[in-house]
Design brief:
The protein is built from 7 helices and 11 strands. It is an alpha/beta fold and 283 residues long.
């Protein structure tokens, strides 16, 4: 017999119920009780010390709310918590980085070397950083976006490459006979490029396509009609907002969020990035 409850009690008072705590995830459909707003989680960010979640309704409009109490998930009240810190099983079990290499324990990032990795744009740089960032910090190699390769020869000349100042360049859609292949050939004719510059590329129109379709829950990347901006066409095919530069950026963040390790990328990109890193770190 328990004596803790001995004495007068209000038997009509409802029992206190602890709400389940659920970590927010992209794609989760929630309802804000106070406003009645229902939408899919498209973004989570920390600002001013608070976690904010963005919910997109079926018309493509978004509203932001602070995490905590006041949400319904599948009709049930929950306490919405910050996203759980996720690690790939390989990282947990073997101490490996997202690129699959053995994690170096207890070593600080090196001061940046003169050598650089150049990629075509911001999205390329973010993808390389997400998967190979740990390795690059150990080696002291910095990734920089070019924002296009039309003036690649001029950029290489300005960089003034040499034995202690190498360049590894990753180019989109570098296939035989393409405009990019001609630009690369001209760039390698620059003084100092031979032996100090390596230009490699993947066959995709955009680095987005280097994400394996099954990671996104699709069989293959959508076909974009000729004459339409590729990124815009992809987001439209997914049914995501696609009309503004912000829409493009948010769409990319949703795609990038699906990438956890090298296993989520196509081999044709993996091999080229590893080739560039080996080139820049060779004695």
């Amino acid at each position: 017999m328990a004596f803790d409850n001995w004495g007068p009690q209000d038997l009509t008072a409802p029992a206190k119920r602890q709400l389940p705590e659920v970590a927010v995830q992209r794609g989760m459909v929630l309802e804000d009780v106070q406003s009645g707003w229902v939408g899919e989680v498209t973004r989570v960010e920390k600002t001013g010390g608070m976690h904010i979640v963005s919910l997109e309704d079926r018309r493509g409009k978004s509203k932001s709310f602070q995490l905590g109490y006041g949400f319904l998930l599948e009709g049930q009240p929950i306490r919405l918590m910050p996203p759980a810190v996720r690690q790939s099983p390989s990282s947990v079990q073997t101490g490996r980085t997202a690129s699959g290499s053995v994690r170096v324990q207890g070593q600080r990032a090196q001061v940046a070397k003169a050598s650089r990795i150049w990629v075509e744009g911001k999205h390329d740089a973010e993808l390389v950083e997400k998967v190979w960032g740990d390795d690059l910090r150990v080696e002291g190699i910095v990734v920089e976006p070019l924002h296009g390769v039309d003036d690649l020869a001029s950029a290489i000349a300005d960089f003034n490459p040499g034995p202690d100042r190498r360049l590894g360049i990753l180019v989109d859609h570098l296939v035989q006979g393409s405009k990019e292949s001609r630009i690369a050939a001209e760039a390698m004719a620059c003084p100092g490029a031979a032996g100090n510059v390596l230009i490699v590329g993947h066959p995709y129109v955009d680095v987005w396509q280097a994400i394996r379709p099954k990671v996104l829950g699709i069989e293959q990347w959508p076909t974009v009609p000729r004459g339409m901006d590729w990124k815009t066409g992809i987001l439209r095919a997914f049914g995501w907002p696609h009309e503004t530069a912000e829409d493009i950026g948010l769409g990319w963040q949703r795609l990038l969020g699906a990438v956890r390790s090298y296993a989520d990328l196509e081999a044709s990109l993996l091999g080229r990035v590893e080739e560039v890193i080996d080139f820049l770190t060779a004695p």
